Amino acid sequence: MSIIGSGLRLVALTLTSLLWSVTVLAGEVLPSWQDGAAKNAIVAFVNNVTRESSDGYVPPAERIATFDNDGTLWAEQPVYFQAFFAMARLREMAPEHPEWAREEPFKSALAGDMKALMASGMEGVMKILMASHAGVTGDAFHSEVSDWLQASRHPDTGRPFTQMAYQPMLELLDYLRSNGFKVFIVSGGGIDFIRAFSEPLYGIPPEQVVGTTLEAHFEMRDGVPVIVRDAGISLIDDKAGKPVGIYRHIGRRPIFAAGNSDGDLQMLQYTTMPRDAGDTRPRLGLILHHTDAEREYAYDHGSHVGGLDQALDEAPQRGWVVVDMKKDWRRIFPE
Amino acid sequence: MSIIGSGLRLVALTLTSLLWSVTVLAGEVLPSWQDGAAKNAIVAFVNNVTRESSDGYVPPAERIATFDNDGTLWAEQPVYFQAFFAMARLREMAPEHPEWAREEPFKSALAGDMKALMASGMEGVMKILMASHAGVTGDAFHSEVSDWLQASRHPDTGRPFTQMAYQPMLELLDYLRSNGFKVFIVSGGGIDFIRAFSEPLYGIPPEQVVGTTLEAHFEMRDGVPVIVRDAGISLIDDKAGKPVGIYRHIGRRPIFAAGNSDGDLQMLQYTTMPRDAGDTRPRLGLILHHTDAEREYAYDHGSHVGGLDQALDEAPQRGWVVVDMKKDWRRIFPE
């Protein structure tokens, strides 16, 4: 082989390995996402805010991303998983409450009659919530949720509930964090319910969870200082309550928000619509559209859980990225 | 020089440079703290929780430290600095409120008559607080506080208020962070007041500030989504409210807490008294005792601002470290 030939071969080899590296690198980012508009929009946004030479550069401290939980990070059908916990907790407590056998909404809840329970309306749901979530110390509640998560399975899939987190979203959390984002959960679900699993499941520590919050008080019990959860609500972290939760807990406006229902509408608006004309930071809103009845569930308009109406209608004009779970995701759940 | 002589010289040199390194290192830790019991207790605690071989090792995620603000991170005499802001804000608003010239507590507040204002009691203070802190957007309030901090000076020292942070405490914040701690403010002061300066002054981002919190709501103003601060209180983050604020915002028990008044008593108890007999993590409670009338102020029992009674009395039995500011601090304020 001539020197020129050998040189050309070296160039060819270098090019090949370079192309291979690029492919591997591209493959490493969000591997469970199909190549397409949604993935491209996410990657372009992240590149834009992280490149110091970019017009859209945002310093790391201001890279705040907020994620809804139910239906966005893990599944939410046939009902919010927290409702399964509440039912289990009521069954556990029932022997001490013989009156529940006759009293609604407890009677229906103990019988697992979800339809009758829903018919009891907000008042009924609140009674169930308070009976199952209040009146215990913070530490005891944390243990109850942890124990239930260990012992319970999803009625449709037979999986532990924590195995119903979405693999592509776990990758998205990692991708954002590896690009200097601080990632928060902002959920209509109970803040302390989510805190019992957010760190091992999502890598999100308790102090980065915002959610519906009960009143609580401090007391000394046998010389031990404890927090006791009270039967009153401090924040309903849903719909217009989500930006309030963000203001209370985070204190600055996110530049990225992801949700899947009208419960996330105001969080998406608050995140993606600039404060004033001078705020030119890039902002990304993302809506998961549940379109995959085979691998997960398909629902949107009018669904009693995770209803998606106004937010889906506003998405085009607001520039929100709509993720079609059937088309955009290679897989739904972890192996 | 013989080989042995040269070898000995090398050993001597190595020893010298080693000793020098140790001295420099020791000097670099908390340089504004006098060597003594308080500094030793802090350094021993940090070494204990950070050394993986130590019985007291605590993983970084659980190294939560909480600091009171007024009187702990910056001064609080002759009154809480937030009160100066409230007065300034009222004077700014007064032209739109001619009725305040006749109406208490506004009349006294505008005249700067602090004594008459205090006589108006909690009800009066709340009226001043709501008039000066509510009814504006979150963004507008943030700007108002920032502008005031730029323009105002402390009446006794003539310094900008941000120059009345305590140099030894700034070093302590850095020292804890460099040892993997996540540092929070937990203050009776207004959460959004503190957030206007906590990041540049203390390196504490807004999401790590807990404080007294107003109600708020979300609305669209001319197509711009905003948070509006309402005239109601969501949390009084003082005394027994501090552990509640910690539970709401942080969701786990700190292992380190610092305060200077009875407003911090329950936070110190909650932090340093283990959950149950099985919890053997090291815990440190620290009380700043204002003992230096020359360089700062001297006050404790019965002071109307930063009163320190029960917490000082409980300190010995609870093992809390009491910092004598006169003896333990080489300097008070930054140069």
Could you walk me through the main structural features you see in this protein, from its secondary elements to its overall organization?
Chains A, B: This is Haloacid dehalogenase-like hydrolase. Chains A, B: Keywords: Hydrolase. Chains A, B: InterPro entries: HAD-like_sf (IPR036412), HAD_sf (IPR023214). Chains A, B: One of its GO terms (molecular function) is hydrolase activity. The structure is a homodimer of 335-residue chains. In chain A, strands 1, 2, 3, 4, 5, 6, 7 and 8 form an eight-stranded mixed β-sheet that branches. The first copy, chain A, contains 14 helices and eight strands. By secondary structure, chain A is α/β, with parallel strands linked by helices. In chain A, helix 3 (81-93) packs across helix 6 and helix 11 packs across helix 12. In chain A, strand 5 (256-259), helix 12 (265-272) and strand 6 (284-291) form a beta-alpha-beta unit. The longest helix of chain A has 26 residues, at 3-28. Chains A and B meet through helix 9, strand 3, strand 4, helix 11 and helix 12 of A and helix 9, strand 3, strand 4, helix 11 and helix 12 of B.
Listing every helix as H and every strand as E from the N terminus to the C terminus, the arrangement of chain A reads HHEHHHHHHEHHEEHEHEEHEH
Number of strands of chain A: 8
Largest interface, Cβ cutoff 8 Å: A-B, 45 and 45 residues
Can you identify the CATH class of one domain in chain A? Answer: Alpha Beta
Query: Separation of termini of chain A?
Result: 50 Å
What is the molecular shape of chain A?
Answer: globular
